[in-house]
Write a structure and sequence with these properties.
The complex is a heterodimer of chains A (386) and B (379).
Chain A lengths: L15 H4 L8 H4 L1 H8 L2 H22 L1 H4 L36 H37 L1 H15 L3 H13 L5 H31 L3 H8 L4 H13 L3 H21 L12 H7 L1 H5 L4 H28 L9 H5 L18 H8 L27
Chain B lengths: L4 H4 L8 H6 L5 H5 L8 H12 L1 H17 L4 H6 L5 H11 L5 H13 L13 H36 L4 H15 L2 H15 L11 H8 L8 H8 L2 H38 L2 H8 L4 H39 L4 H10 L3 H29 L6
Helix pairs in contact in B: 4-18, 5-18, 9-10, 9-14, 9-16, 9-18, 10-14, 11-14, 11-16, 13-14, 14-16, 15-16, 16-17, 16-18, 17-18
Classes of the chains: A mainly alpha (386), B mainly alpha (379).
Organism (chain B): Bifidobacterium moraviense
Protein name (chain B): Peptide ABC transporter permease
GO biological process, one term (chain B): transmembrane transport
């Protein structure tokens, strides 16, 4: 912007304005939900997000490479020589996390369990987003009695304990017991039904809010088809809160899957490894002081849920300006010196706001930014909410 | 003091879905009218409307539960399909009326429900409603104790976190809250059992009381089923201590599950009232930070908590199913999982519907309490 053009005023010979991060559309990559959040997060909020992402990535890797990592199969009860594993064996070199009462290797089953959990989440989340978003869009846009009925039903389901609903669905879909794919599918669908109302409510609320806005009205006036309005105008603008709900729901999905397994409504041990089932079998072990059959699958659940929840919580905080830790005054304001009328003033790390705060004797929290053009130290989050 | 003027415009938050749902038409009506007597006619009309809303909710849930349970076939073949000859099976299906059209059975079931008849269990042949009478008290006792644990921990820690926002204490408490939420209640239960009942061996691992105490309860003329109350009735301190010792671990497991939610809720709400205009105004008048928290920011922050508490009861009842199974605590949840294992779907259906009704009634009570405290909620 060193030269003026039709849309902007510039100062010839001064290239500083070009370095400013204004009026440049962010790249597609920078707009991706998690990438965008990583860029705006600071301090411990960034720490939470990164911890969560690391844990989630770790479990994804374990799920993908389960056959490589696990020394035995999830239903393997004999070693290569054909000798059966001793049941309830304490951790040793051959079985680093011991064996279960059924004679399975705990480490292998915990590793394979990651795969079951990840597949179940993916099925549950994909299906419930698809159904929930579609219903929310249609219900919110068209209104009428369909809308009213759907809202009442969604509210009723929403207030119902989700685990009980999942049990009912598991009974309906699989009659209670099942193999690998039918079991995972049944669990996935059971969880789906529980979470559809949440997506439905969120999307519907957004659609009802957006549909009376001027740009939707004008789209109607210029003759856009209903389908185009639904997909181009409403869908794209109502998915703002989806990443947050999505992550929080996937962690709930794991808990529901484990709960189903714990009550004996999960997947048969010969069909797939499932942490909830393993915990169910370890209830009697614990009373006898056998800790390894419960601790490892349980910790696996805690860590994966912790990871996903940390991501979801951080996204939630970052989406809400009231909860977000402030990054910097500098980036929001741009470079203050550029607006100054004092010709002797040079752009420097500290702008006037910072100088003023320094004067007030406030402690400085200096946050350095990733992008070099913005590399100015700024008064950080501390002053924002004390 | 603070340069947080940017956030003051946010005002008291209606951030949680529950409060948003109840805050329809907030302010609009109440601001215009002059202040009326707290328990005016409008309030009773609100109670009546809210009470009548229970009916469609329960009706929808009963309908869903009924048709979902029947989608796989009749309960008799599910429970004893393998054990009976086909002829015998047919005869019993016919006798129980499961060969009639589904809609007739449904209307029949609804009719029974109105009379308080939820069917008879297949495995041990007792009316489902008697399960509520016999085991309901145990579940309520557990839920009540867990709620106390959750409130004490949740409100205490949530306040501290809000007070020290973005410092180490806040971060630590938030991680603790997420851990509470991330730990499945049965895993937490197993770990508590392992540590306190097996390794340290100071608390009993399972059950509601020792055999000796059970014998004492048999002497009671009118047992309530609430063991703590029964022990007080007996006036026997050994029994009371025994009952309380048995309750510690289950109540802690179930309470911590809910405490995580309360911590987050209290923290968010106190922070948002803390940032609101009237607190800022009080601060500029020189009110101390402690007094700001205790007198100004605290009370309004509690209203959404009461509403969400109602939603937590639903979560707690689901958690009770898992907690009771872990600790062999003989309540509704324990019976539900027992009947699930026996594939007695009449009993399962009955207990699930009972829980649905309990949840609906509890939500009603919570809404009324919320309306009593905050006149803006009424609509």
């Amino acid at each position: 912007m060193s030269h003026s053009n039709a849309s902007a005023v510039g100062v010839p010979g001064d290239s500083r304005l070009d370095a400013l991060n204004v009026r440049k559309p962010p790249s597609f990559w920078a707009k991706m939900p998690i990438v965008k959040d990583l860029r705006i997060a600071v301090g411990w909020q960034k720490g939470m997000l990164i911890t969560g992402l690391t844990l989630t990535a770790l479990f994804l890797l374990v799920a993908i490479f389960a056959p490589v990592i696990a020394p035995y199969g999830y239903a393997q009860m004999k070693d290569d020589a054909g000798v059966s594993f001793t049941p309830q064996q304490a951790p040793s070199a051959a079985h680093i996390w011991g064996t279960t009462v059924g004679g399975y290797d705990v480490f292998s089953r915990t590793v394979w369990g990651a795969r079951t959990a990840v597949i179940a989440i993916i099925i549950a989340v994909v299906l419930s987003i698809f159904a929930g978003v579609l219903l929310g869009l249609v219900s919110g846009y068209f209104g009428g009695w369909v809308d009213r009925v759907l809202v009442v039903v969604a509210d009723a389901i929403y207030s119902f304990p989700s685990l009980l609903l999942a049990i009912l669905m598991a009974i309906m879909i699989s009659g209670g017991q099942s193999g690998l794919w039918s079991g995972i599918l049944a669990s996935g669908i059971s969880i789906t039904v529980v979470y559809i109302p949440q997506y439905f409510r969120t999307i519907r609320a957004e659609v009802v809010r957006i549909k009376s806005s001027a740009y939707v009205e004008s789209a109607k006036v210029v003759g856009a088809s209903t389908w185009r309005i639904l997909t181009k105008h409403l869908l794209k603008n109502s998915t703002r809160t989806l990443p947050v709900i999505l992550t929080l729901n996937s962690s709930e999905a794991i808990l529901t899957l484990a709960g189903l397994g714990f009550l004996g409504f999960g997947i048969e041990p010969t069909a797939a490894a499932e942490w909830g089932y393993d915990l169910n079998r370890s209830v009697t072990d614990v009373t006898a002081g056998i800790w390894w059959t419960a601790v490892f699958p349980g910790l696996a659940i805690v860590l994966i849920v912790l990871g996903i929840t940390l991501v979801g919580e951080s996204l939630n905080d970052l989406a809400d300006p009231r909860l977000r830790a402030r990054k910097s005054a500098g980036e929001v304001i741009g470079s203050i010196e550029d607006t100054s009328v004092d010709p002797s003033e040079q752009p420097s790390a500290a702008n006037e706001v910072v100088a003023e705060l320094k004067f007030a004797g406030k402690p400085q929290a200096n946050v350095s930014l990733e992008r070099p053009q913005d590399a100015q130290s700024t008064q950080g989050k501390e002053a924002d909410h004390e | 003091m603070s340069n947080s003027t940017a956030v003051t415009s946010a005002g008291p938050s209606a951030g949680t879905p529950a409060s948003a749902r109840n805050a329809k038409g907030d302010g609009a009506a109440s601001a215009a009218k002059p202040r009326r007597n707290r328990l005016s006619g409008g309030f009773f009309r609100f109670i009546l409307t809210r009470f009548l809303l229970i009916i469609p909710t329960v009706f929808i849930l009963v309908t869903i539960v009924f048709f979902v349970m029947r989608a796989t076939g009749d309960p008799i073949s599910a429970a004893m399909g393998g054990r009976l000859t086909p002829d015998e099976l047919q005869r019993r299906i016919h006798a129980a009326g499961y060969d009639r059209p589904l809609i007739v059975q449904y209307l029949d079931y609804l009719g029974g429900l109105l009379r308080g008849d939820l069917g008879t269990t297949l495995t041990d042949n007792q009316p489902v409603i008697s399960i509520l009478v016999r085991y309901g008290a145990a579940t309520f006792e557990l839920a009540f104790l867990a709620l106390i644990v959750a409130l004490v921990i949740g409100i205490g820690l949530g306040r501290i976190a809000a007070r020290h926002r973005d410092r180490a204490a806040d971060a630590g408490i938030r991680v603790f809250a997420i851990l509470c939420y991330a730990t499945p209640v049965f895993f937490l239960g197993l770990m508590l059992k392992l540590i306190f009942a097996v390794w340290i061996n100071v608390l009993p691992p399972s059950g509601r009381s020792d055999l000796a105490s059970e014998m004492q309860f048999n002497r009671l003329v009118s047992p309530t089923g609430f063991y703590i109350i029964d022990a007080l009735q007996l006036g026997n301190m050994t029994v009371l201590a025994d009952v309380l010792r048995h309750a510690v671990l289950p109540a802690l497991a179930l309470g911590l599950l809910t405490a995580g939610v309360f911590i987050r809720l209290v923290r968010t709400n106190v922070i948002s009232t803390y940032n609101s205009g009237y607190v800022e105004a009080a601060r500029s008048r020189g009110v101390s930070e402690k007094r700001l928290l205790d007198k100004h920011a605290w009370r309004p922050a509690l209203i959404p908590i009461i509403t969400v508490m109602g939603m937590q009861i639903a979560l707690m009842l689901a958690g009770a199913v898992l907690t009771e199974t872990t600790f062999e605590w003989k309540g509704l949840g324990f019976m539900l999982s027992t009947y699930l294992k026996a594939r007695d779907f009449v009993a399962v259906q009955g207990i699930v519907i009972l829980i649905a009704i309990i949840v609906a009634v509890v939500n009603f009570i919570v809404d009324v309490v919320a309306a009593l405290i905050d006149p803006r909620v009424r609509y």
